[in-house]
Amino acid sequence: MNAILAHFVTPVIGLLGVVGNVLTVSVLSTRHYRGRGYARLLLLLALADLSFILLGLAVQITSNHRLTELDQLMTAILFPICTFALSVSALTTLAICVERYIMVSSPLGSR
Q1: What is the pLDDT of residue 111?
Q2: How far is the C-alpha of 12 from the C-alpha of 8, rounded, in Å?
Q3: Tens digit of pLDDT for each residue in 76-96?
């Protein structure tokens, strides 16, 4: 069961996440959304999630194939970067929640 998850389910979910985040980045990078604060936060969230997914898939692929030299590189360099991207994603989600709370609690004073 663990092999099925590692080899089939996780890459499919990762691919769907990459496609969704690339589409989000392409939409939020247009001129229409460029000057809006919430769009910048959503763009940051999509970029952080995209980097987390890509780095996580890279770490998983190398650990599944037992490449020792590459596995050490992934552990030493890419794992901390992946952890940083996850932290950025969580904090950006918190910032979006706070911004939305301010907009809902005082709609006229937040502009």
Answers
A1: 57
A2: 6
A3: 788 889 899 999 999 999 999
Q: Would you list the DSSP string of the chain?
A: -HHHIIIIIHHHHHHHHHHHHHHHHHHHTSTTTTT-HHHHHHHHHHHHHHHHHHHHHHHHHHHHTT-HHHHHHIIIIIHHHHHHHHHHHHHHHHHHHHHHHHHHH-TTTT-
Please check whether residue 21 is in contact with residue 50, taking contact to mean a CB–CB distance below 8 angstroms.
yes
CA dihedral 9, 60, 46, 85 (to 10 degrees): 150
pTM for this entry? 0.81
Q: Are 60 and 70 in contact (CB under 8 A)?
A: no
